[in-house]
Amino acid sequence: EKANLNPIKLFIDIENQEKLVSLWISRVETIVGCITALRMLNKMSPPLVISLYFTSLVLPRLLVINLIYTMSVNGTMMLFEKPMHYFFKKMNHLKDKLIRQITNVDVNAELISFLKGEEFELKKLFQLLEDERKNALKYDFLNSIRKSIEIFIEHFEWLVPILAAIKLIRSGEMNQEVVGPILDNFIRISRCLTWAKRNFQDIEKLEESARRSKLYEEPLSKWQEMRISINKKLINSEKIFFSGTLYADNEKKNNLAEGIFELPKNSITLFDAPSGSGKTTLFRVFCGLSNNLKGWCSLPKNKTVYLPSQPYILGPDEPLLQTIFYPQKFNPGQDVTDEITKENIEFVKEILKELNLPERVYNELISIPNSSNNGVNTLNVANWLTSLSDGERKRVVFANIFLKLKRQSIKFLVMDEPFKGIDLQTQIIIVNRLKNTIHKKKSKSAGCTILYSNHESNHELNTHILKIDPKTKKFQLEEAI
Predict the structure, then answer these.
(1) pLDDT at 266 over 60
(2) Distance from C-alpha of 258 to C-alpha of 293, rounded to nearest angstrom
């Protein structure tokens, strides 16, 4: 189990545990309030009970009301106190689990290859947190919990600026270096000092808490630095990770799918899922075009190419070669004499012939349609926007993809419905050329990983399949049969 430790899954688990701890704290706070109110009500009960008892001598029916009242209050308290103890026990269990998970990183750090044996110095920090929790249990149970919750919610945010300002005022060290930051946060400091003045008798306790909180600052900053370091190493390793929840909207309300997966290097993965399940959303997240993700993904930096489901063809006043050379600007009057451009044009013609495009397409690559005032094409060159079918457009855009794979170091290729309108024989030609390109050692794009979707699934074209479980909405990555 240790050998298979996944740091991304670990971070997600930690985040989930933190959410659960917050949830249980809110539940404890609610129940503590209820119990406190009931106890106050119970303290008021004796005089009310006595008065009802004597009144019941005159009005016997009130005796029944008296009994019902007493039984209701005590019964309700019993109802609340049992789940209160359970909730508190559950909350502490979750805290302990969280501590164990994070401190286990220290034990398993050497087993994570890209950490290179670096260690997390968090055991001491979480031991301090655990000691604080145990100390709180020595005092009156309900009051200590309620007070801790109140201080945390209302005042913890202001603790550091309060004590910093008080210390400076007491010592008379209000020099220019410290006055600036205080003035920048004047309203906050004023609120802090107002609160501190009202609660001056608690200042020593707060100072003690601040002293303890300083013990946490350095380990916590090291933890943040370590997470940034891990993220950088993942990017530099050119691994393709996904970890989190995918949503259908920016408000992150409609959950499409969730999970953790890593696409194997040099693999061709088919994303096999029904329409509306989030295929296009996942592709756009991978390419940085959408933020419908709660979590994170790691990609090869600046080495990703995206082919959308609707390919883009330039306007009627541009040669077709401009679409294939895009985003590089192609000037038919000058660039055709350049040796590299000539070589690329021949390469593109070879691809277009191989993909069974009509002869007119690769013969008129550099011709510019020129429309007269009455809209007639004077050079008799096709308007590519209207004369190409969907399948022909896709094959033209594939020429652009193959040219990029030849000229650049592409490590991740994402294609949304790339084979729509293309026959199976041409699909096989395209995939075989892709395989040859990414497996060829001398190729600039050797080792490229491919992720694509296709409604007409043919598993012989890919090495892996990515699915979404319809019941759990979890991602599932498996090898193709």
Answers:
(1) yes
(2) 9
What is the model's pLDDT at position 375?
42
Closest CA to 8 of 225, 239, 243: 243
Phi (first) and psi of residue 243, to 5 degrees = -150, 115
Residue 102 lies in a domain: yes
What is this structure's pTM? 0.51
Q: Is residue 396 in some structural domain?
A: no
What are the tokens at 62? 């009130």
pLDDT tier, 29 (very low <50, low <70, confident <90, very high otherwise): low
Q: Could you tell me if residue 5 is left (phi over 0), alpha (psi between -120 and 50 degrees) or otherwise beta? A: beta
Cα–Cα distance for residue pair 396/414, rounded to 1 Å = 17
Which residues fall within 8 angstroms of residue 28, CB to CB, at 6 or more apart? 84, 87, 88, 91, 145, 149
| Same domain (yes/no): 289, 273 | yes
Domain count, the chain: 4
**Maximum distance among all Cα pairs of the chain, rounded to whole angstroms:** 117
- Residue-wise pLDDT tens digits, 231-260: 666 666 677 878 788 888 777 778 888 888
Query: Do residues 383 and 376 touch, judged by C-beta distance below 8 A?
Result: no
